[in-house]
Amino acid sequence: MKLDNMFKKTKVSSGEKGYISRGRTGPAVPEGLLRKCNKCGSAIIAEDVRRDFYICPKCGGYFRVHAYRRIEMLADEGTFEEWDKEFQGGNPLAYKGYEEKLVGLKEKTGLTEAVVTGKMRINGSEAAVGVCDGRFLMASRGEAVGEKITRTVERAAKEGLPVILFACSGGARMQEGIISLMQMAKTAAALKRHSEAGLLYISVLTDPTTGGVTASFAMLGDIILAEPGALIGFAGPRVIEQTIRQKLPKGFQRSEFLLEHGFIDGIITRPEMKETLSRILKLHEKNTVCSAWEKGSIGNVSSTADLLSGGIDAWERVQISRRADRPVGSDYIEALFTDFTECCGDRLFADDRAVVGGIARFHGIPVTVIAQAKGRDTKENIMRNFGMPSPEGYRKALRLMRQAEKFGRPVICFVDTPGAFCGLEAEERGQGEAIAKNLYEMSELRVPILSMIIGEGGSGGALALAVSDEVWMLENSIYSILSPEGFASILWKDSKKAKEAARVMKLTAGHLQEMGIVEKVFSEPQSYTRETMKPVMISLEREIGNFLGKYGTMTQDELIEHRYMRFRKM
Amino acid sequence: MIKKILVANRGEIAVRIIRACREMGIETVAVYSEADKEALHAKLADEAVCIGPAASAESYLSMDRIISATIVSGADAIHPGFGFLSENSKFAALCEQCSITFIGPSAKVIERLGNKQEARNTMEAAGVPVIPGSREPAYTVHAGEKTASEIGYPVIIKAALGGGGKGMRTVYSPEDFEAGFHTAQKEAQTAFGDNTMYIEHFVQCPRHIEFQILADNFGNVIHLGERDCSIQRNHQKMIEESPSPALSEKLRKKMGEAAVKAAKAANYTNAGTIEFLLEKDENFYFMEMNTRIQVEHPVTEWVTGVDLIKAQIRIASGERLSYKQKDIQINGHSIECRINAENPEKAFRPSPGTVKDMHLPGGKGIRIDSAIYSGCTIPPYYDSMIAKLSVWAKNRGEAIRKMRSALGEVIIEGIDTNVDYQYSILNHPDYVAGDVDVEFIERIGVLGQRCDQ
Q: Does B141-201 carry CATH code 3.20.20.10?
């Protein structure tokens, strides 16, 4: 049965259809009640957007945020103190109409320029801050922007404050010509001095960060964060498309693309931003590191004799070290540290998921943690390339170690790899060079380094994270020049003889401790899995404490000399 | 007076509201989702606006779209029906901001009554009985026992962080208190790592009795008698009737007065319902106040002769109540059965589909509220209730016989319905005797025995 136009319409009693009596205002949406999302086009209730960090409740898209609102979202109430509020740039090209344009914008936006600077507290931690505001000539960077940022960074260096800059910019302020270009060098130079003073700079990239801002202060953070989906790039997408005459792929130059390509440490949603910044700031606050650590008695650490006569065959240990249910790097990070904040990317080519690194606390002490990461299941293993790092992985590790050095944090590495990834791309990008560079740089890193082999210690790929003050092993982990299979096939032309190879290679923890390759060996429960890892963690925890107590109190020269001699005598 | 109403709902209630509007000479605007393109409410209204895809969140729950549809169609009021946005204080506030008359109480009142703790406190302060319970937590048997004896047995011991029945014990006498408290507390400690306990009076096999309220903007509040909604499955009502066979004239007066007091305490306006739990010993406790028209409003309309939807519209238009309490006389007896597209034999699984053919009963004292028609499709996205069958007769016995007869005439082909299940309840001796409580369905469905035996 079709009911279209079947029913009679209502007879309106008053005779005047839709009549609304005078004096009473008819239904209307008051100004500002509804907004339109420029991403999905939906009408949304402005109040919801304001309360919800300026995120579209329908599509999750991010609205651009005014500078003062951004500060309001981050600063502890009443702690923001604005610097150089009245500073304005000139008109170096005497460009016609520029000054009038600035006057108009000032009236319209209530801003004096495209960046607001000052200092504030975030959950109690003080920081200098600069926030770009896109309403002002698309936050293009002219003299005023460059100068205000430079002054902020200089003042932060003088006052010993960390700097947080929220970048957002269309690029250079064309009206100011070459003076605008020079702001890139000026801001970069100021940040260099700030960094030389051992201070932290966090750069947060918001939509859009393009042109010369990307090519200067935005990309120079010790830590670079980005909001989800932000456009970040040097050349704008339209310019690129016109130049190469090709359509750009979806997601090109977005935050996620940059993360994958190793240029940012992480993507942080707006609701998480304050907590994340506060955690990072606190991890970089000066504290008394590694002084007095109670030296506990050594529990669970096995003697060589035990391990050699333990009755477990070398080949069996090889197989145990490769078991799928064995705890992986991430399990150790979760069990031993708090506040782990992952830092991604080598800042060169990619973020290698076979290496996980970041900053964390060990009993309150900030440390840099780097782990070769196998997956917990097949899916994760594919994502992590079965724990075989690419050159990017080693370069990320080195980047994080250098940062640890800058901030005086000990480095703790977990080694668990069948070997560095063998592949075309790995060779193209210099796998050998990447490993060599790590050995070279780690030898003189001016902070303590501890490496633990928790599963497979596969050759150079393992050594690149093990040029350390001490190297420890778990009972059933292995560390060798090559896999037993490889060894057998090279020496005996038969990879099936891996079992015999394992016996002659002296790759077990017991043998290696006897040979002085490793300092400590930790016994494992009968079946070592995530469920049974607790006792091992307890002894690791105690021993790491002892390690930090011992090496944390050495002078840098002593530390480097000790590390040099450790390998010199081998 | 309101000239044009947008009905922000679907199904039988939308049809019910449209009909009331037509009778009052008010133009109507229906809103519908893509799944409801052919729905009766969309066809029956003077205008219809599509407001989005099938998913409720993007259509019947989308505040901005409904507001836009209202403005575009030139309606000056919104009737929210029940469910969807009907008790959403934010939506009511939005209407207020846009100078649209929301047919219901103010946003503030909806918000206050929506907060269980606040509603309880308001009622307690106004002298409306609430379930007695400890305000302070108890950590020891001694403290708990003291509270329990003050409240009176049976009591229920509840973990502060409780859920899923864990850390909960019912104790019927003081001798069992210590053991019950220990077990509950131990369970709470293991399950939630917290041993904070609360003691509350245990309401044993209560009846669900609710009072219909009408309140205008001038402080006049009346009640229109009660509805007994004890026949429910998983807190979903199935059969409602008015008056309740369990209420004496004296108790009706007492509860009615409490209901009016409750509505006054909440500064309530428009139509609303006060829900009580009624124990066998005639003790009753405030449960919550529903700030909307109820599904089961027809039974009250039958016995009082008041058209509740029209009353809602008149109150929203700023008119004074035209009845005083003394004008309200409960006349005869009415029963309503909810007809759902579901299969009682398959765990009440919803049964969407196309209605191939149908026959519905009629005649004196029989009313159908429904939006189904021959050939219509019941979409799977929304509530499964497809019709309300209500009857009126001089007394309860006759009403039951009339309902049986009417149910016997219902034919709906193409989908499964609960008509036969309803028929069996109408023939159950306990129901016929009026001897039921909120656990009736659970008992007949599962155990076949009564809780007090």
A: no
Domain ranges of chain B: 4-103, 141-201, 207-447
Distance from CA of A5 to the nearest CA of B (A): 7
Check B22 against A10: CB less than 8 A apart.
yes
Question: Which entry of B10, B227, B252, B292 is annotated as an active-site residue?
Answer: B292
Question: What whole-number percentage of chain A has pLDDT above 90?
Answer: 71
Q: What is the CATH number of domain B207-447?
A: 3.30.470.20
CA-to-CA distance for A375 and A353, rounded, in angstroms? 10
Contact yes or no for A458/A480 (Cβ under 8 A): yes
Asked whether residue B22 carries a pLDDT value surpassing 70, the answer given is yes
- A19 to B3: CB separation less than 8 angstroms, yes or no: yes
Q: Which fold has domain B4-103?
A: Rossmann fold (3.40.50)
Instruction: Please tell me the total number of residues recorded for chain A in this structure.
Output: 570
Q: What is the DSSP letter of B103?
A: S
Q: What is the mean pLDDT of residues A276-280?
A: 96
| Residue B27 near residue B7 (C-beta atoms within 8 A) | no
A·B CB contacts under 8 A: 75
Q: Are B73 and B29 in contact (CB under 8 A)?
A: yes
Pairing outcome for strands A365-372 and A355-362: antiparallel
Interface predicted TM-score (ipTM): 0.76
B401 assigned to active site: no
Domains of chain A: 32-63 (no CATH), 64-283 (3.90.226.10), 316-568 (3.90.226.10)
Query: Which stretch of DSSP H or E encloses residue A129?
Result: strand A125-132
CA distance B160 to chain A (A): 30
Q: What is the distance between the terminal CA atoms of chain B, rounded to a whole angstrom?
A: 57
Cβ distance B26 to A10 less than 8 Å, yes or no, reads yes
What whole-number distance in Å separates Cα of residue B16 and Cα of residue B406?
20
Q: Is the pLDDT of residue A299 over 80?
A: no
